[in-house]
Amino acid sequence: MPVSIENSRVIYDALVANGVRLVSALPETWLVHLIRMAEDDPAMILVRLAKEEEGVGISMGAHMAGVRSAMLMQNHGFLASINGIVSGAQLYRIPLLMLISRRGVMGERDPWQTEGGGVTEHVLEALRIPYDVLDDKSTVRHRIDRALTLAGSALRPVALLLDRELMWEE
Amino acid sequence: MKRLEALESIRPVLEANVVVTIMGAVAAELQSLGHRPNWFYLQHAMGLASSLGLGIALVRPELHVIVLDGDGSVLMNLGGLTTLARYRPANLVHVVFDNGSLLSVGGFPTATSTGSDIAAMASGAGVPRTAAVDSPDGLRAAVDAAIASDTLTTIVAHVDAHYEPPRGTAGFVTDLTLLENRFEFARWLKGANPLAG
Questions:
Q1: Is residue B21 part of a domain?
Q2: Cβ pairs A/B, distance under 8 A
Q3: What's the whole-model pTM score?
Q4: What is the CB neighbour count within 10 angstroms for residue A138?
Q5: Contacting residues for B10 by C-beta, under 8 A, at least 6 apart
Q6: Does residue B195 lie within any of the structural domains?
Q7: Nearest CA distance, B118 vs chain A (angstrom)
Q8: Which residue in A87, A128, A161, B32 is deepest, having the highest Cβ count within 10 Å?
Q9: Is this complex scored with an ipTM above 0.85?
Q10: How many domains does chain B have?
Q11: Distance, CA of B187 to CA of B194 (rounded, Å)
Q12: B32: domain CATH number?
C-alpha cells in the first residue's frame, strides 16, 4: 500500500495526544490507515458515516457534551459538508477539527479528483476557515496542536489539509 | 393531532432528559412549554439534528437523548438513519414529527405526503425498533416503551400541518438567542451528573 503507514501513525498519535476521543470518517484511499488505527484503538469512538456532513452534526454533539473530536474526509467530502459547517458549526461556534485529504493537486493521477483539488482552498478561504497543510512528518504534531489551540480559542472550525508529500509513498 | 399536544404529552420525559430539536415549529412550540437548559434547538443545518443527537449519545452513554426530528429534515439526511442504525445507541429515542409538509417555508408537501414511509425507511436502514403513532397518548406510550426497551427506536408521530406562533414568539423566533441556548446546553451537559437531584 503506497499510503504511508508511518506518517498516518504520526497524525493519529498527535490526535490522541491532543485528547481527541471521537473520529468520524468516510473512507478514502489516503485515510485507510488512519481509519484502521481508530478502529483498532479501544479508547477511540469511530463513527463511519454515510455522508460527510453527518460528521459535522456528530462533532457538534460531541463538543457540547464535552468530548473532543475530529473529522476525517476527502476534500470532496468537505465540499459535501458545507451547509452543515456554515449553518451548524459556524453558526453555533463549534471548534470543529477537519482533517481533509488534499486530492486533485500536483501529482494527482485520478482525473475525477482534479476539479475538487482546484477549489478546496478557495472554498476554505471563502468560508473564513483557517487552514494549514500537513506535508512533513516533523511538523505534524506541532500543526495539529496549534490548529486545536486556535479552534478552541476562536470557537470556530479549522482545517488541516493532508498533502500527498505526507500521505503517499511513491 | 396537533404537534403542541404531542409535545405536551411527553413533556415530563423531555424535561428529564437531553432533547435536541430541529428548527421551525418544533423548536418554537417546545420553547413555549417553558425552556429548559437541557434542550437544544438546532436552528439550521437541516437534517443534522439526529446526527448531533448521535454524537451526544455516543460520548455520554449515561444520558438519554431524545431527538425531535421532522419529515423534511429526515428526508435531507436519509443516510443518517443508516449511521444511527449502525451504532444503535441504546440511549437515543428518535421522534419524527411527520406533517407531510415543509411547514415553516410555505407548507409545500414533502415526499411523505406521496407515500414515502419514514418508519419503514428507518426499519429498512436497520433501526431495531420503530413505531408510528397518531395520538398524544400513543406518542407518550411509544416514548415510554422506547426508553424502557433500552433500544434505539424511531417513532414517527403523524401531526397536523399547522402552526400558530405561541405567545412571545414572532414567526419562529423567540427571545432565546442561538448562542445563549448553545452555551447553556453545553454547560448543562458538562455538569458531572446533571440529572442527580
A1: yes
A2: 113
A3: 0.96
A4: 7
A5: B95, B139, B140, B143
A6: no
A7: 18
A8: A161
A9: yes
A10: 1
A11: 10
A12: 3.40.50.970
